[in-house]
Every structure is written in C-alpha cells, then in structure tokens.
Design goal:
The complex is a heterodimer of chains A (98) and B (162).
Chain A: H1 5-28, H2 34-56, H3 65-97
Helix pairs in contact in A: 1-2, 2-3
Chain B: E1 4-6, H1 8-16, H2 23-31, H3 38-44, H4 48-60, E2 64-66, H5 94-106, H6 111-119, H7 124-141, H8 144-161
Antiparallel strand pairs in B: 1-2
Classes of the chains: A mainly alpha (98), B mainly alpha (162).
Chain lengths: 98, 162
C-alpha cells in the first residue's frame, strides 16, 4: 500500500468515523427508548456499517475493480439512508417540541 | 429555618448516578432546591422521619449543604411536640406525587425529566407546564406508552390536588 494523499484522507476519515461510533454508543445509554431511542439503534447500525466500510478504503487499491465499485455504491446507498433517517429524526423532534 | 442546596457533588450525582443512591435518598436530593426550607421539604416529602434521615445522610456525605441561616439540623427538623404540616392524603405534595409517579414509571433512568419536575414551580400552572414538558421528553427519549400513562396520571394528580 502506497502512502499518498488519498490514503492519509482515508485514515483521517476512519478516525472521525470511530469518534462518531464512540459518540453514538456512549449516547445510547442516555436514550433508552422513545422516538429518538428507536431511531438511535438504527443510526448505531449504520455508523457501525460505515466504520467497517471506511476501514476498507485504504485497501481499495488492492481490491478488484468490480468489488470496489460495489463497496462504493453500498456506502453511497447507506449514506443516503443515513441522511434520510437523521433528517426525519430532526423533523420528528421539532414536531414533538413545537 | 434551614435551607439546603445541592453541592457540586450533589449536582454531579443527579447527572451521573455514580454513587447509586437508593430512591429513598435520591428523591430528597432531587427535591432539595436551595429555596425550600427543611420544613417545606418535609411537607412535600411524605414521611418526616425518612426524609430527615435522608437529608442527614446527604449532608453527611457532602451531597447537600446548608445555604440558609444557621438553624436546625436535619436530624432535628422539628422539636419534640411541634407539629409539622401533615402530608396530604395520597403521598405528599402534588410535586412529590409527580416525582414518585415518574420514578414508578421509569425507575432510575429519568434524570432529565426528573430535573424538569424538580425545577418546576409549585404552582398549578408551573406543574402543568412541567408535566407537558416531561411528557414530550419521555415520548422522545424514554417510552411513548409510558409517556401517555404519565400524562394521564399526572393530570389526575393535578386535578385531585385542585
């Protein structure tokens, strides 16, 4: 694996993702249930999935092109789901508090 | 008149539960607000002996401290023979009943909602506003069914209290 700019960015992304995973897991105990608690479980699953996906990125150069395309597509797909879930959660919270 | 306030350790305990205080000690800690006298806490807090013991424990362990003028220690809240206001039928002030209801419904996992009740003024309007806020917070972060149950039973308590 050659250490270039892309790899450095990938490593930074992984670090940020692990921080995000730590955040969602540590907040879990404070949100035992309810609307936010339910959505939070889904967000934990998605963040865990992303962390695994991000861990693969430094090795993308070693992967077959087809597999790499599939991983990128999956990350985009679940990224879109993550955004929808987050926006809906914010929407529900605002609705509840309004 | 003795007034107790939470110390930094007491505030920390409310947030973190690191000392795992039993409910009989934790509820008085929640009720201590830096404004109510011991006598007022007793009138809110149901059984005088237990509340007095709890306050003594909390003070001894640094969770609360006296913030008013020097006066009676919690171990001798009222001198022998002097009557303190009797708790109302149904288990104390409406605020205490709401705190107890919340504890019964969600147990130990409701610091934020408990704090909302604790900080609410004792007036009917203040308590009603706190109940609505707690209901919203419960729906969002605890349990939607329990939130509905809390709302209906809390309104019953407030109605009964007049």
């Amino acid at each position: 694996m050659q250490l270039d700019f892309a790899v450095i960015i990938s490593v930074c992304s992984i670090v940020v993702m692990f921080y995000c995973l730590w955040l969602v897991l540590s907040l879990k105990s404070r949100i035992p249930g309810g609307i936010v608690g339910r959505t939070w479980r889904l967000l934990i699953m998605l963040v865990s999935f992303f962390t695994l996906g991000y861990l693969c990125t430094p090795f993308f150069g070693m992967l077959p092109a087809e597999l790499m395309k599939l991983i990128v597509a999956l990350i985009f797909f679940f990224g879109a789901i993550y955004v929808v879930v987050t926006v809906k959660l914010i929407y529900r919270v605002i609705e509840e508090l309004a | 008149m003795t007034v107790f306030a939470k110390t930094a350790k007491g505030e920390e305990e409310i947030r973190t539960r690191q000392n795992k205080l039993p409910p009989a000690i934790r509820v008085p800690l929640i009720l201590v607000d830096g404004r109510s006298t011991v006598e007022e806490l007793v009138s809110k807090g149901g059984e005088q002996t237990k509340l007095t013991e709890a306050l003594a424990y909390l003070e001894q362990h640094g969770f609360i401290e006296q913030s008013g003028a020097a006066g009676t220690r919690p171990a001798s809240v009222s001198p022998p023979g002097v009557q303190t206001p009797a708790p109302r039928a149904g288990g104390g002030s409406p605020k205490l009943q709401l705190v107890q209801l919340m504890q019964a419904l969600v147990g130990q996992g409701a610091d934020k909602v408990m704090a909302k009740l604790n900080e609410a003024p004792d007036s009917r309007d203040g308590l009603e506003a706190a109940v609505v806020a707690c209901h919203k917070l419960m729906r969002l972060t605890i349990d939607e069914k329990k939130a509905e149950e809390f709302l209906s039973r809390a309104r019953e308590i407030l109605r009964t209290a007049g």
